[in-house]
Specification:
alpha/beta; UDP-N-acetylmuramoyl-L-alanine:D-glutamate ligase; 11 helices; disordered N terminus
């Protein structure tokens, strides 16, 4: 089961703490995006480790500051490794990629969601499917908005005791009692393979230094500002991907806290 920390930091404070500690982040993740995810963590100031072998994954999770379990390409070995890592004491993020219509990953995601993730991060269609109120989106693409998934996300947070982070034009983060919205970003990030998967890894990195709500808010704010900066100086997805990594490296704590991209509101009633 994951451990909840009690340190609630602003996004800027969380970023400074992350860079001061250079946390080791284990990624059991989509093979399509492993390189981009690792580069995003390195640019931010964390240290990635793509350790997804059964017999090692659980041992390594105990050494890591945070763990990402991403179900983008859930091979049989990765499925076993994910269950091993989820049994560690390290706080971890579940990214239920493309759940809903696909039975293997959907069953695994539902099993993992009951094993104590600190944060569950996905697009609106994935969160609705995991909550059992929808059949999912179009593969990895959402067909719903964060507002569509709001009540389901609140209920899922209360049931699993995880923070639920729903990505979209305006991200929605809920612990089942309080919602936080994070604005910003750029559509070009959706045209780069691994944009959402890297966000899950960034969230896992922040879990090493702060509580799950603060980690989710910091990760979404960092990615939103970095995406805007990258889009402002590029012409398309290829150059954007490189510029996004540069922006992650350049962003400062002051940039995050002065931007104040997040707003609070009560979650839906039980």
């Amino acid at each position: 089961m994951s451990v909840r920390t009690s340190v609630h930091l602003s996004p800027g404070e969380a970023l400074d703490a992350l860079r001061a500690t250079n946390p080791l982040v284990q990624c059991i993740t989509n093979t399509v995006v492993a390189g981009f995810t690792a580069n995003a963590l390195l640019a931010l100031g964390a240290s990635p480790a793509m350790c997804d072998i059964p017999g090692e994954a659980g041992m390594f999770a105990d050494l890591a500051g945070g763990v990402l379990i991403n179900l983008g390409t859930p091979t049989s070995e990765q499925r076993d490794a994910a269950l091993e890592a989820a049994d560690s004491a390290t706080p971890w993020v579940l990214d239920p990629v493309a759940v809903g219509a696909l039975p293997v990953r959907t069953a695994l995601a539902r099993r993992l969601s009951e094993l104590g993730p600190a944060v569950i991060r996905g697009n609106a269609s994935e969160i609705l499917a995991l909550a059992g109120t929808s059949s999912g989106g179009r593969g990895v693409d959402a067909v719903d908005s964060p507002d569509d998934a709001g009540e389901a996300a609140d209920a899922l947070a209360r049931r699993t005791c995880a923070v639920i982070a729903v990505s979209g034009a305006v991200d929605l983060i809920t612990d089942g009692h309080q919602r936080i919205r994070v604005a910003g970003g750029d559509p070009l990030l959706t045209r780069v393979t691994g944009g959402g998967c890297a966000l899950g890894a960034t969230t896992a990195a922040f879990l090493s230094v702060c509580d799950p709500v603060a980690a989710a808010v910091a990760a979404h704010a960092v990615h939103a500002i970095a995406a805007e900066r990258a889009a402002a100086i590029t012409r398309g997805p290829g150059s954007f991907a490189v510029a996004f990594l540069d922006a992650l490296a350049d962003i400062s704590a002051g940039d995050l806290d002065s931007a104040r991209r997040w707003t609070d509101e009560p979650a839906a009633a039980r």
